[in-house]
Amino acid sequence: xxxxxxxxxxxxxxxxxxxxxxxxxxxxxxxxxxxxxxxxxxxxxxxxxxxxxxxxxxxxxxxxxxxxxxxxxxxxxxxxxxxxxxxxxxxxxxxxxxxxxxxxxxxxxxxxxxxxxxxxxxxxxxxxxxxxxxxxxxxxxxxxxxxxxxxxxxxxxxxxxxxxxxxxxxxxxxxxxxxxxxxxxxxxxxxxxxxxxxxxxxxxxxxxxxxxxxxxxxxxxxxxxxxxxxxxxxxxxxxxxxxxxxx
Length: 247
Prior knowledge:
It is built from five helices and nine strands; from the N terminus they run H-H-E-E-E-E-E-E-H-E-E-E-H-H. By secondary structure, the protein is of the alpha/beta class.
């Protein structure tokens, strides 16, 4: 849908610019007609329009294909997360999953938040290809090379932000375990070598969660309060901001 909408926008810009070029040519022709040297003015204005048009269309082409690549990458990521959800469905009924917690003023989203007896888990799904390992400094390497951004640091920051928001709503202070779940990646990064984030294969998620990897299992009475807070945060983001009253 985003790709289709962007194509329509680009087409509209192309039509607008063609109208601009035509207008410039007509102005040039009219100038030449009323002031003489009709051909000269027409040619000069046409050359000026073409001079503007060439870099403009190159810019449109570059912007268009950049957007298309980003859109396809986003769709691919969404497909990967759908595959991951299939694994989450195998969790016992005592666990609740809240998907796609995103905040407008945050550093990014939490793909999946799992809350249950063994703790709270913030999960970021990675659809990378190849092998992932630690760089020895707490960050990740993909296929022997550093990633394009500090993945561990950024996700730890998002997890801490989520924890602060939950704490503000519940007055509880649960430990939130950060997890990278890799769909199609050979995971070589050992726990403890990537800061506070654990790296696992996606198909390990049920065993990882249910076999108590969190530092602080949750008291039964806290679980519904944490679930309610997570759902409230998600609904808060989904609801459009209400318009201020004129009274």
